[in-house]
Amino acid sequence: MIGFTSCDSSQVFDEYKTIPDSWHKDNIVSFNVIPPDTTKHYNLFVNIRNTYDFKYSNLFLIVEINFPNGKVIKDTLEYVMAKPNGEFLGSGFSDIKENKLFYKEGFIFEESGDYKINIQHAMRKNGSVIGIENLEGITDVGFRIEKIQN
C-alpha cells in the first residue's frame, strides 16, 4: 500500500537516514521516538527512497518497535515497489522515487518514554535461502508518525 499527502499538518515525527552506497543486510536503521501522547491513535509509515539501481519489484523489511519497558513488536513486511511492467511506484520526477509505505494503522504508544524503531532489509533472490548481502538502489530509509485526522 502506498499513500501520499501534500500537507504536513498531521506530522508528528518524520526523519530519514541516508544509506551510503548499498544497504548491508546487517545494517539496522534506527529511529528514536518520544511520542507526544499515550492516549491518541497514530498511523505509522516506513518511507523509502530508491533509484533505478533497485532491481526488484518488491521490498521485504523487518521492522521492530522497542517499547520503553522492554516489550518488542517485530514484523516482517513486504511492499510492492514496481508495477508489473517494471515501472517504479512512488513520487518524484527524477531518478529517485519516494514511497510512503503503511506500517501500522491506529497505533497507540501506550507507554511514556523513549521508543526505538529498527528497520532492516530482508531481501533474498527467488529460490535462495541466503539473503542479499548488499542491497543496491535504496538511498534513504525513513520513519513517519502521523496524527489521525478526525
Stretches where pLDDT falls below 50 for ≥5 residues?
A: 1-6
Helix segment count? 0
Oligomeric state of the chains in view: single chain
Structural class by sheet pairing and helices? mainly beta
In CATH terms, what is the fold-level topology? Jelly Rolls
Strand content: over 45%
CATH architecture label: Sandwich
Number of domains: 1
Indicate the mean pLDDT: 91
- Which CATH top level class fits? Mainly Beta
Task: Please provide the count of β strands.
Answer: 10
Radius of gyration (Å): 16 Å
Q: Indicate the percent of residues in helices.
A: under 10%
Order of helices and strands: EEEEEEEEEE
Shape: globular
Output the strand order for the largest sheet.
1-10-4-7
Query: What's the main sheet like?
Result: 4 strands, antiparallel
Overview of this structure, please?
This protein has strands at residues 11-18, 23-24, 29-33, 41-50, 58-66, 72-80, 97-108, 115-121, 134-135, 138-147. With 150 residues, it is mostly beta strands. The chain has a 4-stranded antiparallel β-sheet with strand order 1-10-4-7, with no helix packed on it. It has a 4-stranded antiparallel β-sheet with strand order 3-8-5-6, with no helix packed on it. It is globular and about 45 Å long.
Key phrases:
about 150 residues; mainly beta; Jelly Rolls; 4-stranded antiparallel sheet; 10 strands; about 50% strand; globular; disordered N terminus
